[in-house]
Write a structure and sequence with these properties.
- The chain is an alpha+beta fold.
- It has one domain.
- Helix content is about 45%, strand content about 20%.
- The chain contains three helices and two strands, in the order αββαα.
- It has a two-stranded antiparallel ribbon with strand order 1-2.
- A hairpin with a 2-residue loop joins strand 1 and strand 2.
- The relative contact order is 0.18.
- The mean pLDDT is about 85.
């Protein structure tokens, strides 16, 4: 439920407009007893190029990452956890 919007965005914005075959790598590992690290690596067209294309085709508004951020915030409040996400 939390990974799906990130993977979907990687496909739609990173790989959909790539001419060659693209790859998404998901790495999951424990940092310590209480921490889990999940990393998505995408060899797509890049965030800059994707933003260019998005500005030209501005017909769709994506809400997946916003809803996911809200889920994480609620989960943190309900479970006293410290889940975060970072897009680099």
């Amino acid at each position: 439920m939390l990974l799906q919007p990130f993977i979907e965005n990687a496909i739609w914005h990173g790989l959909m407009h790539k001419r060659a075959k693209g790859t998404i790598t998901v790495d999951i590992g424990k940092e310590d007893e209480r921490s889990l690290n999940i990393s998505l690596t995408v060899d797509g067209i890049g965030r800059e190029k994707a933003a260019e294309i998005k500005s030209k085709l501005a017909t769709h508004r994506s809400h997946g990452l916003k809803v996911t951020s809200e889920r994480i915030e609620l989960m943190n409040k309900l479970n006293s956890t410290c889940v975060t996400s970072h897009i680099i």
